Fold each of these.
Amino acid sequence: MDSGYDLRKKFIINTVFILLIIFISYVLLKYGISIVSPFIFAFIFAYILNKPARAISTSTRLPHKLVSFFIILIFYAVAGIVVFLLGVRLTSTITRIVSMIPSIYDKQIGPLLMSAFRSIEEIVYDIDPAIVEVLNEGFTQFIRTMGETVTNFSLRLLRSISDIASSLPLFFIKVLLMVISTFFIAMDFDNLVTFTRRQFSQQGNKVINTIHQYIVNTLFVVIRSYAIIMFITFIELSIGFTILGIKNSILIAFLISIFDILPVLGTGGIMVPWVIVTLLQGNISRGLGLFLVYITVTIVRNIIEPRIVGKELGIHPVVTLISMFVGGNLFGVVGVFGLPVILSLLVHLNKAEIIRVLK
């Protein structure tokens, strides 16, 4: 029987070992994936395009490598054209909007603020005329500071766009590596898979097959879960915008519900600026209505997202919420979706008795 000292020693060793594994995994996921990301995406695209290439090759009796080559060529040509056109349009639109921000402030927001301040001065004058001069000086300084802040913010955004443009060479190198790797992997996909499987034992291949099937099914489940969330958000926004009498309410609700999938920005990325601008324009009732719609959508999403995603993935809503929060802070957008999937995979492997982590 182990003594108390031996038990404590074993506990400390196991704890240090687990923490070391967690630290190494974090470093690999945080920095290693970024380095090998072109090859990861190349394998994913090759895997996806392999099935249609095989089907066409079987039906037409053309060589599999030839069919894979042309399918990948067509895929990247279409994707490249679409990304290029969207990128050019998006960049020009953002640049135009950002350059217009100071003008919008000077012509619309500034005068609205001055009008609001004058109303406050009139109220204060009836109470104590001596305070008006102090308020007037403070308001003038506030307007000047706001103008400088808006201008500096606009300049910072424009510089950020320039910084993104300066990082394009490295991005294009990664894209080129990804494209070339996709061709090589796709045209020799079966041999690569066979070679990789030979490096593992029969039990190892069984684990790989289990993980592969579960990840494929889980990705479908995650997509379905967020499609449900997006649909619920769309219904809420459509009802709210229709009640407020907003033109093209259905179309606007659809666009915002798509934007809502992004965990960093979400509905607030559009609704909050919209609410602020509407209130500054003096339309208090519509501004408050939009704010109420935004609060409702946010509360409902925060309630249903862990439940829907957790239920589909087979993990508790609280665990789902914690994993999404931790994943988002550690790995960004990828972590929000990825960490719940990894936890779900661990639970599945534990239930299948492939690994023993949980009791």
Note: The chain has a mean pLDDT of 78.
Amino acid sequence: MNSHSEALFEINQRLSSHIRTMSNFPVFDPQKITNDVEANIKRMTSILKSKRLTREDEDLMKMINDCSKVLHEMLLERIMLQQDSIQFFTEKEASDSPFSNSADTIDEDDDKKIKSRRLTKKQLLVLEGWFQKHKNHPYSQKDQTNLLIKSTKLSKSQVQNWISNRRRKEKNTKVSPELAALLLTG
């Protein structure tokens, strides 16, 4: 392995490590990942300027590109989930406030008038927030179920069915073949 190949292999390993970290741990240090990726970009830029790439180097560059795409998508998804959670808790705090606007209750009444089989975004945020908080043991106790019923305005059976379906969805989540290949190479 030439020096470029060794450096590219190391970059690929580091990106794969970040992907595994994000896949396995709900909490990670985004600043650490950002700093590492920026350092890797600088290293790759200098390697590309040398213009002495072997076939092995080109293959490693393709793998790094694939890892970068996966890492990018995972980061975007995490950011979206985080923003949804922040928005949910901000809205919840505002609605719990004694100074909350009466327009909020009008919106909720409008939600009831629409005969839709799907849950509203607010209901999904509440339920998903509860599920993420209780992911280690996603079985609601009676008081938690009652709290979810009050905050979502759903029936007991709807709440219980949603939690049951969400547990099943979590259990059946499969890793895509592309991601599995990347995780196995690391």
Note: The chain has two domains: 3-86, 115-185.
Amino acid sequence: MFAAWLLPRFMLQALRARQPDRIAVLEETPCKTVSQQENTLILSISHGAERTGVHPGMTVSQALARCPNLQVRYRDGQAEQAVQSLLLKAAESWTPDYESTRPGICVLDLSHTRWLSQEIHLHAWQDRGLQMRQDMQTQGYDLRVGFAENADLAILAAHVADPVRVLRAGVAEEKHVLHDLPLTILNPSPPVLEVLSLWGIRTLGQLVALPRADLASRLGAEGLRLRDMAQGGKERLLSLVRSQEQFREVVELESPIESLEPLMHLLERLLQRLSAQLAASWHVAGSLNLTLRFADRSSHERDLGVAEPTREVPVLMRLLRTYLEGLTAAAPIIGVSLELTPVRAASSQPTLFERGLSDPNRFAETLSALEVLLGRGRVGRAELLPSRRPDAYHVAGFLESFTASALASTSDADQFIGLPLQRFRPPRPALVTLHQQRPVELRLDGTVLSVRESRGPWLLSGNWWDLRQVWQHEIWEVEDMQGVLYRLIQENNRWFVEGLYG
């Protein structure tokens, strides 16, 4: 279900003009001469001016001939933008999915609202529409609300609303009320509107009566689009508005903070304000960025990930407290900055047999406490790096998702067939005797082993672009007189037994 909000006579409402007065709205830039003003086209008129026979599209001189006491005003672009922003802000309090269709009109997608499945009766929708209308009425604006099962039909319903109208798809009798609506509400391009006016087509009903094939051959795709909209429209995706609001609070302290509890009290107040802003925009916090400025002009910044995105203040406070309890500072705090990264709340429901953490945020607090105890980068899981160097890995957080390289390393394509290698960790130092650059004798843990056969060398190297991390291995496979296969590596002119096969 979709809801369309319409501010009728939008330009006049933006000017805060009284509808009973006889007022006409012209372009924003005032004309320099009287003759130029008389030839200017009227964009919008009030109810009082309409009753005298004045209509949009007339020139000022034509309108004054019919209504001598007509008041002429110029449209205010900044005021219109402010009212449109106010309209969208009110829509955001009902659903996160809404479209700014054109000035004075916005469409709300209500298909994901929780109360939709419960309110299927006509009176229930009427009550909801009156509540929506009241949001703008309290600020002095006249709002019309239309409900329908697609966005275009909801817009048409708003044009016939008084003040709320619900149009149900498949009910032909309800769509007949749309036939008397003017063609201009479909917002056709000026050339097409001029052609239709020459044909005498001025209402939606007259447009629908035209043969579809003939209309397409003469007006093309736009003609078909206008005819479809006049019949109630089709399913389409909304051009959703996504606000780029920044959720950040900065405080400069008059009195420095020297202990944890005053700082936590301040952070709690900041989180309460930020959480309210997140709730208003239908977001949750995916991470926190905390910056502390100290009296010695130094600063400390840290990003804290939220295991399960939330805007619950107690959960975020526990995360901050766990981190700050392990932080030491050499000077008092004179400034605090807290920023939340907004993300969409997860809407998927876990399956019956899915196993997961009962409280991911509590688990994250435990990991943070361990990191404070053991040091940063020492808590997590070992994840292989995309490198040929043996045992090349890094420590990834337990709550981080697996990278593409880590998933690729576990695929069936990388499983080699052959004798398994029993690795020695760490590799055992050895003395190797060479003859003609090939191993012939191996001394390992005081035991002398004669080499019956050897294969190699295989050279491995990497990170040649970084002198601090460059590495190079020479690998040999040797077999002693008892048939035991060993794997030898030479690194920096030193020999090691990396393991044995079988």
Note: The longest strand covers residues 447-462.
